[in-house]
């Protein structure tokens, strides 16, 4: 099913479709649908694909032209993301920079930051990782203990970060540090620093997850250095900058997620019909529930997209927050149920089998979905946000 496209955007949609059909060929076509923002499978192929996208000027669509973007609007970005997911192109590798750091630099960075980093991000010349969470400071970022001390020309950084997505592939990290340990309120005295990875004071150690993917890393800083001007948003303003960064998850990402889950459900239905397990009334009901769920997601995501495109909506911010948080909460829980169903549909091969193929994909779906109620904001935090900021309920 297609989203409704306004007449003035049909030419752009056709341009996207034509380019993808012409360039998603050869080795790239052989890796359709490979990877995800939390799966580094076929990394080298995906890097080359992202450089192909860069050469076609498809990265940073909404970024200003002076930094290498195309200066387009949110409508074009949403159309591109939808068509990209629809084509099952390989998952992009530098989402930390494209979706989070880049917009943060555009909002809070100095002109020197923008000129130095944004063109290299769009050219896929530098990879980025996020240094926010720490042992003991995951969801509670105000508790970070990694410290940065300034001298005349640089910052000296000591501490540890964990769950750094694709950190072992990163050339740079954007790191939340405590620069003033004496302030009374924990969320003050924090600064966001840009830190080069390839130096003696930084040790990045990959962590293998349940699905045998090195999804994330732990990072140790032992007198790591970064120049004094590598502070985003000013010294002591890290909390405000980071909260803005975490709020930059685009509604345009919701439709690709739903389309990927739609493909998973379709594959499960086909496999159940082939094996005959669809005749089991319990399996059949669960397949129906899975199908209904992804279409519930579609309806909710379309509301988010409509809010993003409706600049005249008086309550756009509240409506978008409600829909986006609700969609994330529902999708995380629903995807876990789909993973459990996938194991039952594909049977023993999904549990004990080896190699690639549909059964292996089912196993990966089950294993990777276990973390979805944690990353990107735990389900408990999503419920708190919905209760307090959307429904206006009191804190307990």
Report on the architecture of this protein:
The protein has 396 residues and is α+β, with helices and mostly antiparallel strands. The protein has three domains: 87 residues, Butyryl-Coa Dehydrogenase, subunit A, domain 1 (Orthogonal Bundle), CATH 1.10.540.10; 110 residues, Butyryl-CoA Dehydrogenase, subunit A, domain 2, CATH 2.40.110; 140 residues, Up-down Bundle (Butyryl-CoA Dehydrogenase, subunit A, domain 3). Helices cover 48% and strands 14% of the residues. It has 13 helices and eight strands. It has a four-stranded mixed sheet with strand order 1-4-5-8.
Taken from the alpha-carbon principal axes, the silhouette is globular
Put simply, the count of helices is 13
Distance between the termini: 43 Å
| Low-pLDDT regions | 313-318
List its salient traits.
Butyryl-CoA Dehydrogenase, subunit A, domain 3, Butyryl-Coa Dehydrogenase, subunit A, domain 1, 396 residues, Butyryl-CoA Dehydrogenase, subunit A, domain 2, alpha+beta, 4-stranded mixed β-sheet
Task: Summarize the topology.
Blueprint: H1 10-23, H2 27-30, H3 43-55, H4 74-86, H5 95-108, H6 111-122, E1 128-131, E2 147-150, E3 154-165, E4 172-178, E5 190-196, E6 202-207, E7 216-227, E8 231-232, H7 238-246, H8 254-275, H9 281-309, H10 316-346, H11 348-352, H12 358-369, H13 379-390
Parallel strand pairs: 1-4
Antiparallel strand pairs: 2-3, 3-7, 4-5, 5-8, 6-7
Helix pairs in contact: 1-4, 4-8, 5-6, 5-7, 8-9, 8-10, 9-10, 10-12, 10-13
């Amino acid at each position: 099913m297609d989203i409704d496209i306004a007449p003035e955007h049909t030419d752009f949609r056709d341009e996207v479709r034509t380019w993808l059909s012409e360039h998603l060929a050869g080795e790239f076509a052989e890796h359709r649908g490979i990877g995800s923002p939390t799966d580094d499978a076929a990394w080298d192929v995906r890097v080359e694909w992202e450089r192909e996208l860069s050469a076609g000027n498809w990265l940073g669509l909404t970024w200003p032209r002076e930094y290498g973007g195309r200066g387009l609007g949110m409508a074009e970005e949403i159309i591109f993301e939808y068509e990209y997911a629809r084509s099952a192109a390989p998952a992009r590798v530098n989402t930390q920079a494209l979706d989070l750091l880049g917009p943060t630099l555009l909002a809070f960075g100095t002109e020197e930051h923008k000129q130095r980093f944004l063109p290299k991000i769009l050219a896929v010349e530098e990879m980025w990782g996020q240094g926010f969470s720490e042992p003991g400071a995951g969801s509670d970022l105000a508790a970070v203990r990694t410290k940065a001390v300034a001298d005349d020309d640089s910052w000296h950084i000591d501490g540890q970060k964990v769950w750094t997505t694709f950190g072992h592939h990163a050339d740079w990290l954007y790191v939340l540090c405590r620069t003033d340990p004496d302030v009374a309120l924990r969320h003050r005295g924090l600064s966001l620093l840009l830190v080069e990875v390839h130096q003696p004071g930084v040790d990045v150690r990959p962590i293998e997850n349940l699905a045998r993917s090195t999804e994330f890393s732990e990072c140790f800083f032992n007198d790591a250095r970064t120049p004094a001007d590598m502070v985003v948003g000013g010294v002591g303003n890290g909390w405000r900058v980071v909260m803005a960064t975490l709020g930059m998850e685009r509604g345009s990402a919701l439709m690709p997620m739903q389309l990927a889950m739609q493909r998973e459900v379709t594959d499960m239905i086909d496999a159940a019909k082939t094996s005959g397990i669809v005749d089991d009334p319990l399996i059949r009901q669960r397949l129906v529930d899975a199908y209904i769920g992804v279409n519930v997601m579609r309806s909710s995501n379309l509301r988010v997209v409509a809010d993003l495109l409706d600049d005249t909506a008086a309550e756009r911010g509240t409506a978008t927050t409600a829909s986006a948080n609700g969609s994330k909460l529902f999708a995380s829980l629903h995807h876990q149920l789909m993973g459990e169903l996938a194991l039952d549909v594909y049977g023993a091969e999904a549990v004990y089998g080896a190699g690639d193929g549909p059964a292996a994909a089912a196993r990966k779906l089950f294993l990777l979905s276990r973390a979805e109620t944690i990353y990107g904001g735990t389900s408990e935090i999503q419920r708190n946000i919905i209760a307090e900021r959307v429904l206006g309920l009191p804190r307990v």
